[in-house]
């Protein structure tokens, strides 16, 4: 079994870091590379100072140095790229990985109507230098 076949995202939750309130969650395998996943977020996310992403995943194979590269693109052009490293993950386990995202200054933010359907989050999953999966999520916004 390949690492990609043995890897699964169980669910994702997004929280307002100031209030700890969950404002979006979905139990779906976003690591399924056969499609572009679409999600609808509340527009209030654009007013939050910081958001945390809780990512529950399972792996059949051991990951010696689990990491991911999170890339946000607007109309296909790079907005930002962030690297996250978790380290070793035991085979046959389920884990939750929490990452924080700090908002850009208000002067650099675009309104939801401009961003709607034009932002994609591409997440590449690695074991050290070996990329074994990619997830693409297209963002939509709703009041």
Explain this structure.
Residues 4-141 form the GMP phosphodiesterase delta subunit domain. Belongs to the PDE6D/unc-119 family. Pfam families: GMP_PDE_delta. The chain has one helix at residues 112-115; strands at residues 7-16, 22-26, 37-42, 50-59, 63-74, 77-89, 93-102, 119-127, 130-142. With 143 residues, the protein is an all-beta fold. The protein has one domain: Coagulation Factor XIII, Chain A, domain 1 (Distorted Sandwich). The strands form 2 sheets. Strands 3-9-8-5-6 form a 5-stranded mixed β-sheet. It has a 4-stranded antiparallel β-sheet with strand order 2-1-4-7, with no helix packed on it. The longest helix is centred in the C-terminal third of the chain and has 4 residues, at 112-115.
CATH fold-level name = Coagulation Factor XIII, Chain A, domain 1
- Work out the helicity level: under 10%
Largest sheet: 5 strands, mixed
Question: What string, H for helix and E for strand, traces the elements in order?
Answer: EEEEEEEHEE
The helix count comes to: 1
Strand order of the largest sheet: 3-9-8-5-6
Distance between the termini: 43 Å
Strand content: over 45%
CATH architecture: Distorted Sandwich
What general form does the structure show?
Answer: globular
Class in CATH? Mainly Beta
Q: What attributes does this structure have?
A:
143 residues, mainly beta, Coagulation Factor XIII, Chain A, domain 1, 5-stranded mixed sheet, 4-stranded antiparallel sheet, 9 strands, 3% helix, 62% strand, globular
